[in-house]
Amino acid sequence: MGPHPSVAAVRRAVRASIAGLEPGDLVLVACSGGADSLALADALAFEAQRAAIMPGGITVDHGLQPGSAARAEQVTRMMTRLGLSPSLSATVTVAGPGGPEGAARAARYAALDQAADATGAVAIMLGHTLDDQAETVLLGLARGSGARSLAGMAAVTGRYRRPLLRIRRDQTRAACAAVGLEPWDDPHNSDLAFTRSRVRWQLMPVVTDVLGPGAAEALARTAELLRADADALDVIASAEIAGLGGIPAVTDEGWPVAQLAALPAAVRHRVLHQAAIGAGSPPGALTHRHVASLDALVTAWRGQRWADLPGEVRAERKYGRLLLTSTPGLAVAPLATTARSEEPGGRE
Questions:
Q1: What's the pLDDT tens digit per position in 133-191?
Q2: Which residues of 12-51 are buried (b: 16+ CB within 10 A; e: fewer)?
Q3: Closest Cα partner for 139 from 207, 195, 211, 220?
Q4: Which of 45, 65, 115, 260 has CB 3.0 to 4.6 Å from 83, enough for a Cys bridge?
Q5: pTM above 0.90, yes or no
Q6: Cβ contacts of residue 348 below 8 Å, gap of 6+?
Q7: Delimiting residues of CATH 3.40.50.620 domain(s) in the chain
Q8: Is the Cα dihedral 91, 37, 139, 166 positive or negative?
Q9: Which DSSP string corresponds to 228-250?
Q10: Longest Cα separation, the chain
């Protein structure tokens, strides 16, 4: 007899994800001990033998719950029993911008990157499922995000791979049960103080009840389609940036406003987004409203003098050109351009 259908489904997903890797390559799986990442770790250990790659694992202790260190040690032992070597544990301090969820995510990814650098791993596998993808789309809709955000999580982002984006959460739990693994249920995942938990436990059941049992699959499929569209628009925007002479440094003469204004809005917004990042705005802090304030300098200029962006970047329109300059010590008013200026610099 073959493996349980859910075990087979997870293994097929992992097999497709590691296709093309070289024999001897090290792949780490980020394992919290939950059903999704535990099923992923088990499948990687199995498929690694067939692909002649090296499977490893890492668990991250965020230190946010009593007994978290003991839990991390238990997960590490479990990964070792599965045949993952190395089996690592990293302890992080959760602090900084983005709220508890954002700060924990940033600390976790920093630890994963450090582990990959230290071990020479070519890839890190994450246990995000189709259900996670559907929740991400709903969160993006609620925030009024654009196509890139609604496109959800990519199957591959740099060294990160998400093999389970077409696997349901109940499949990973069934896969664990079939091979005798006991997953740990993180109480934070059911804590309604967190937005994603409310989406998971309150919103998704209503969406499924109203729209039918295929709602999660439809949301995930929407993410795939939007990702393809967003990728195509990014390619077009990159070509336009090259035609403009590349991302301008803060000391350059900027870009001609007329040429920017002639671009379709979806392309122009991407061009402006990349310009802001190139001038020093952190990608994670740059929002749609910031880009809209840039766009207003191009398409709705009424004499407003400048728009201030995260990263101490100031955008100005002068003599028919859009200029972005680094302004150390800038107190950013990020959500709108400043009032109309009566000084010569505010007019063309």
A1: 999 999 988 877 678 878 999 999 999 999 999 999 999 999 999 999 999 988 888 88
A2: ebbbebbeebeeebbbbbbbbbbbbbbbbbbbbbbbbeeb
A3: 195
A4: 45
A5: no
A6: 317, 318, 319, 320
A7: 5-223
A8: positive
A9: HHHHHHHHHHHHHHHHTTSSPPT
A10: 81
CATH number of 5-223: 3.40.50.620
d(CA 153, CA 196): 15
CA atoms of 293 and 285, how far apart (whole Å) = 14
Contact present, 15 and 47 (Cβ < 8 Å) = yes
Cα 243 from chain centroid (whole Å):
29
| Residue spans in the chain of domains classed CATH 3.30.465.60 | 244-346
| Torsion, CA 275, CA 277, CA 281, CA 282, rounded to 10 | 160
Nearest to 92 by CA among 108, 74, 105, 103: 108
- What's the fold here for domain 244-346? 3.30.465
CA–CA dist 31, 342 (Å, integer): 58
